[in-house]
Amino acid sequence: MKPVEQRWPDDLADRYRKAGYWRGETFPAFLRARAAERPEATAIVDGDRSWTFAELHRRAEAHAAGFLALGLSPGDRVVVQLGNVAEFFSAVFGLFRAGLIPVYSLPAHRLTEVAHLARRSEARAYIAGADYDGFDYRMLARGLKAEASDLRHVIIAGDAEEFVALDDCTGDASSLPGDPDPSSVAFLQISGGSTGLPKLIPRTHDDYIYSFRASNEICGVTENSVFLIALPAAHNFPMSSPGHMGALYAGARVVLSPAANPEAAFPLIARERVTITGLVPPLALLWMQTAPTAGHDLSSLEVLLVGGAKFLPEAAKRVRATLGCRLQQVFGMAEGLVNYTRLDDPDDIVVGTQGRPISPNDEVRVVDDAGEPVADGESGYLLTRGPYTIRAYHDDPAANQRSFTADGFYRTGDVVRRLPGGYLEVLGRAGDHINRAGEKISAEEVEDHLLAHPCVFDVAIVSMPDAALGERSCAFVIASEAGLKASSLKSWMRRRDIAAFKIPDQIVFVDRFETTAAGKVSRKELRARLRRDFLIQNGDMAQ
Ligand code: OOB
User: Fold this and answer.
1) Record: fold of 439-533
2) Global pTM?
3) 216-239: pLDDT as tens digits
4) Looking at ligand 1, which residue's alpha carbon is closest to its atom 25?
């Protein structure tokens, strides 16, 4: 079995320890500490169930012993595909305690993705819920056994049928080994890349705990916070920005929502007096549209974190008026670097930027095509390294070659501008620019113009091949009012004093956007839809 590791050069590791970022903390140790300090405080709320810190700790210890009793050994990898349920926490803290390494799969993943994660990690076990959101994961498990040759055990939360029930997977905690090494890999997170299958991201106890401990400070999370997890718990954003791990670290309460829509989340915010949550932009739009007339008391909400994809200024402006809370933009990546706007930043920063890095030791470089630094304020590719940014993916030499510079900077693939104070404005993904006869069009910039139109609910712009221009632009628009016409949108755009080449060549009205497993708008799927439905039908499928 290939070892899972993540290493920084010794001089930098020393620096991160001396600066107090890496403190030798581990996941099992921090949960044990909270359970000792606040045994009766509520840690997890899942529907009508709630677990105290003592209860969560007890369950995790019992599972740790149960997993080892099954025949798993420290260092083994275990694919975890659980939704926003309490068992997610007892299972992963059980794995941490046993020195087993969770590999996080999202509930939306199906056999192709899960099998890929299992194979690439050489997983020995798979833990899933019996069913979630109308899908039967036992069925997936049956297929998985044939696809992943290292897999020995399937553990199911709920009705396990022929598999091992998570509830039965318990043992005597007194025989457990000691805590894992803080510099060892705690889990494998997955990359959010919009192309290809996810890559595996080894994160250590030291580096990851630093990222959410520092995020707690930046976002004001304390033991009095109530954190709603509306996005999938396994995704890096709701996990660590500051997310459920930050909240548990602070001794705060984590409230799980089975879905991220207002119907599921708003009653929970009202009932549990939720103070903070995080959303991707399409959901933030929906919450802002729904809140004023939904009739739920959202007054406890103090902070809304929005990230995962660009939150356009036209939308960001509306957060306070519609939801009555402060906005923090988050620009992060499972590979590491996370940027936040700060709670005391002026409105123009909060609305117009994606924040600045967590750490004074996050090194940020913005470079041109030749890899040379560009001047502040100029757009370029974002490279980064630092105390919680990985140096390598697990078992993927080709990706490592592509994604890291010789001196250890991660090539994020994002195009940004660095503004005064180190704030970053994300202009798009390297591949998302539309090159229209040499004129570069930023999809985000044009989207923001369209979003300002009162009858536009959401918009996504992608390129399409064009024999004459090379590429032309297509705007997919979800209208908030029936009867909106492409011609009126175009003439409205013309009145906004922008270069004519930025006006979308084609406007297509749709009811919804395809999203990734994490709920982001998938430009890849939109491009595919465009090819399928529009180009072929028009007979001009340029190659
Ligand atoms: C988060 O993580 P991933 O790994 O799913 O995706 C990372 C990528 C970034 O490289 C960037 O392309 C995009 O998602 N992104 C944003 C953004 N936040 C992420 N693009 C524009 N504006 C933003 N605010 O998505 C993630 C991880 C931790 C915290 C927040 C998000």
Assistant:
1) GMP Synthetase; Chain A, domain 3 (3.30.300)
2) 0.91
3) 999 999 999 999 999 999 999 999
4) 308
